[in-house]
Amino acid sequence: MRAITVNGIRDSVITILHQHFPGISVYGEEILQGFDKPCFFVKLFPVSQNQLLGRRYQRNHSFDICYFPVVVDEGEGEGNRQNQDMHDVAEQLYEAMELIPVVDEGDGLMRGTKMRHEIVAGVLHFFVDYNFQVIKEATLEPLMQTMEQEGFIRG
User: Fold this and answer.
1) Which end of the chain has the lower number of beta carbons within 10 A, N or C?
2) What φ, ψ does residue 119 adopt, rounded to 5°?
3) Model's pTM, two decimal places?
């Protein structure tokens, strides 16, 4: 069984976005100038790992999934409609990001926690955490180097 990696979880999030929003571009860590809207931008916040007991560790992955909608002219009620569209996308993200298949693992699923969203400056920010425990493989070291022993019998 292979271990779950940071890139595996990131790739899983991007894959789910492609599946649930097929007509919308998805960008990884770097976003280029002049990108096409609407689009998603997946930002991975710093990953943390804490030792629990022995070889067991807790890993925490936090994501900010930004949705850039198509900019519409600020006519009467257009800004309100744009916010409604972003809230609709957020509702779909709550469903899509709850359980994601892990690319590295094959049949494993990850549960998203601490999901929330907000709209800042016309951009939807959807936050989700994927936390799990890992066990590092034990390194087998010889218990003892070599030892020579001599024995004598008196008699």
Assistant:
1) C
2) -115, 120
3) 0.77
